[in-house]
Amino acid sequence: MRGMMMDFPLTLPTILERAGKLFGKVEIASRKPDRSLVRYTYADFYRRARRLARALELAGVKRGDRVATLMWNHARHFEAYFGIPATGAVLHTLNLRLHEDAFAYVINHAQDRFLIVDDLLLPLYEKVRDKVKFERVIVTPFGGAEIPAGMENYEDFLAGADDNFEYPQIDENEAAAMCFTSGTTGFAKGVLYSHRALVLHSLAEATVDAFGMSQHDTVLPACSMFHANAWGVPFTAAMVGAKLVFPGPNLDAESVLDLIEQERVTIACAVPTVWIGILAALEKSPQRWKFTNEVRVPVGGTAPSEALIRGLDKFGFHIRHLWGMTETAPLGTLCQVRSHMKDWSADEQYAVRVKQGYPAPFVELRIRGENGITPWDGETPGEVEVRGPWVARCYYNSPEDNHRWTEDGWFKTGDVACIDEDGYVKIVDRAKDLIKSGGEWISSVDLENSLMAHPAVLEAAVISVPHPKWDERPLAVVVLKEGRQATPEELRAFLATKFAKWQLPDAFVFVEQIPKTSVGKFLKIALRKKYANWNWQAGA
Ligand code: ADP
User: Fold this and answer.
1) Which of 21, 39, 76, 407 is the most buried (most CB within 10 A)?
2) What does the DSSP 8-state code read for residue 516?
3) What's the distance, CA 347 to chain centroid?
4) Beta carbons within 8 Å of 12's beta carbon, 6+ residues apart
5) CB contact at 8 A, 79 and 48
């Protein structure tokens, strides 16, 4: 017998309508490049997003067409997040930190028709202008730069439309947005999100044990809007009617902290590298900011170290560890200390919180080791496989990558992890980052985490470097905190309290900074290349 409920499509316009009708009075604050704030409301956002949809429709944008955005995190980008999919077209957020070749590749591969670009980012567009073909380039007057001939002003584009936009009947499985992976381990691949996936993802993300986002929250998405839809936060915030605070291009620690203090942010999202800088700023000037509330800090992209989680807790910033990927929209797992752990010691609870956590509702996860699916024993490593309503079933126009899915339809993540008796996943490494020394695996993530707990260490990346006797050995690349000193011997001794001797890095290299990917991850490919010919005997 079939159920007798309505077959009601799960689409983004439903969220837009709800936001406009119910939360019209809620504020949206958006920072300009000069750090001044522009304030408007969900009522304004609603009208302008629909205007954008109407303007695109009048300009000839059709269902399924790709409209690219090249923009910082600000209110107009938020309008595009809804205005483009409302027409049945696909929002393609371009990564503004890509190298120009990859940038042109992504635009051409997606066959983007229109581009909406911040005036400040036009120099980036100019670099690829001759290699790509946009029918129209619409420029947002964000930083007050002059708009070149042949391009149009976003505000004029909106003014040219009327308020009579009518939503097309969108099937929930139609594409709403597109994002390319940031390419940490290879060339970028396109992921095409459906309306249904984004709506269900928003519902799961809002739940108390995930982001716990409600109408009473003030949310700061300081994770890039070009990266996995700013973790879906703009969609979720609009669904629940939370106040939004957009940081614009200034993501240095002081700017972010000023904004959190001033706007009384309750949920702040950014990658761990941003929080490392924030913790250093807080420790340096503990009296400078006066926070009136605690801040929830959903963190993913790379693993936050235990030292970072502990350090931020002291200032009322509470990390909620998440794991995810562009391919999982991105919420995959979430880490909460569970009810049966509430009487555990602080140390035991921190040991839980550094894990990536257990799957979000509707995400299914298993780990495949050398002997098949691994037991929940907290130690057998294997590759994480996932499936669920917001997990990609293939890449966009890339059949050569279909090997990333198992025959029974699970996505092979490329992350190596183990899973404990409570179902908490602990990522040990990315498959490509594993260090295999004398036939034994060494976890670079564990070593990095521990190194970053040393009081003199700001950042640390551990990589595998070829070794004549052991195949590979770990080498640690370390950035020291301002004004602090540490010797390799000290760091080795510090690690030796936690690791077996054979697991310790054989060399420590001190650098000013570690190269990062476009979304703030350690660029280990570059480090491995740089130290590929390391002479273990000479130590150079
Ligand atoms: P890219 O694959 O180009 O880095 P993504 O941003 O989609 O782009 O990266 C997803 C990957 O980031 C995951 O496969 C995993 O390796 C890493 N990652 C994400 N969250 C975490 C986390 N909490 N801990 C450790 N690694 C993480």
Assistant:
1) 76
2) B
3) 28
4) 82, 85, 86, 176, 195, 198, 199, 235
5) yes
Distance from residue 323's CA to the centre of ligand 1 (Å): 7
Query: Is residue 289 in some structural domain?
Result: no
In the residue annotation, 436 being an active-site residue is answered as: yes
CA R_g for the chain: 23
Confidence at residue 185, expressed as pLDDT on a 0 to 100 scale: 59
Instruction: Give pLDDT, residue 470.
Output: 85
Distance of CA 238 to the CA centre of its chain: 18
Structure tokens at 95: 């990564």
Closest C-alpha to ligand 1, atom 19: 301
Task: Give the structural domain span for 368.
Answer: 364-432
Residues with CB under 6 A from ligand 1: 181-185, 300-303, 321-326, 356, 413-415, 427, 430, 519, 521
**Could you tell me which residues are beta bridge partners of residue 153?**
139
Please give the full DSSP string across 484-496, using - where no structure is assigned: ----HHHHHHHHH
SS3 355: coil
Residues 179 and 137 in one domain: yes
The span from the CA of 123 to the CA of 127, in Å, is 7
The DSSP 8-state label assigned to residue 129 in this structure reads G
Contact 193, 9 (CB under 8 A): no
**Residue-wise pLDDT tens digits, 470-511:** 888 999 999 999 999 999 999 999 999 988 888 999 999 999
Is residue 310, in this structure, part of any structural domain at all?
A: no
93 and 111 share a domain?
A: yes
Measured in Å, residue 179 CA sits from the centre of ligand 1 at 14
CATH, residue 481 = 3.30.300.30
Q: Which residues pair with 334 in a beta bridge?
A: 322, 358
CATH number, domain of 409, equals 2.30.38.10
Q: Is the distance from CB of 92 to CB of 110 less than 8 angstroms?
A: yes
Residue with tokens 């809007």: 225
Same domain, 427 and 442: no
Longest distance between any two alpha carbons in the chain, whole Å: 75
DSSP string, 148-194: PTT-EEHHHHHHTS-S--------TTSEEEEEE---SSSS--EEEEE
Q: Are residues 390 and 444 in the same domain?
A: no
Examine the domain organization and report whether 522 and 373 are in the same domain. no
22 located within any domain: yes
Q: What is the mean pLDDT of residues 371-391?
A: 97
Residue type, 170: I
pLDDT in tens, 281-335: 999 999 999 999 999 999 999 999 999 999 999 999 999 999 999 999 999 999 9
* 386 and 524 co-located in one domain: no
